[in-house]
Design brief:
The chain is an alpha/beta fold. It is built from 9 helices and 4 strands; from the N terminus they run βαβαβαβαααααα. It has a 4-stranded parallel β-sheet with strand order 2-1-3-4, with helices on both faces. This is DUF4276 family protein.
């Protein structure tokens, strides 16, 4: 079985991916989601989970928020080292959401408005801070302010937003990099013989 396995900091990332991926992933690839209880839990369990995964036709994407880590490249390198130590260097990609998963949503306020039933939310996209959402210090706080009339619910709304989030949106480089990793691993998996 060809599997694309996501090791995720939290459940909201899984909720978003579960509704985003059916629109972009080849049906011959099975996505698997491993949400953790935050970044410490992810980093503690990552090597063991990667080593213990038995399917040779699996590829892995580790997705973690940057949060307050000042050096995104050092964070990514540390997680990549964990993948390498687990023997999964060639089959894994590490992606960092700058600063939080919600930056992906701030990059596509039209989708957020549509998903959550907030008319004209996309008019805020012209504001300087939302043109480059990866630079927003606290994307979840900004999103909560924009969605105050409906109340932003991290997991439930991530599921709704993922269903309509544009896969062609270029405003968030970290989102673009995540989609690039998904597409690259999809190509690798489709090139493998199916052993199901």
């Amino acid at each position: 079985m060809r599997e694309l396995v996501f090791l995720l900091e939290e459940e909201s990332a899984a909720a978003m991916l579960k509704t985003l991926l059916p629109r972009m992933l080849n049906p011959g690839i099975t996505p698997r989601y491993m949400p953790f209880e935050g970044k410490q839990d992810l980093e503690k369990q990552l090597p063991k989970r990667l080593k213990g995964y038995l399917n040779p036709n699996a590829r892995f994407i580790v997705l973690r928020d940057q949060d307050r880590d000042a050096d995104c490249k050092a964070l990514k390198a540390r997680l990549a080292t964990m993948c390498a130590e687990a023997g999964r260097c060639a089959t894994s990609s590490v992606r960092i959401a700058c600063r939080e998963l919600e930056a992906f949503y701030l990059a596509d306020l039209e989708a957020v408005g549509r998903a959550l039933g907030i008319p004209n939310l996309d008019r805020h996209q012209r504001a300087a801070r939302f043109r480059s959402p990866d630079t927003v210090v606290s994307p979840s706080s900004e999103l909560a302010k924009l969605c105050k009339q409906v109340g932003y619910k991290k997991v439930g709304d991530s599921r709704k937003i993922g269903a309509v989030l544009s896969i062609d949106n270029e405003r968030s480089p970290s989102f673009r990099n995540l989609l690039g990793a998904i597409r690259r691993h999809e190509r690798e998996l489709l090139a493998l013989p199916d052993s199901s």
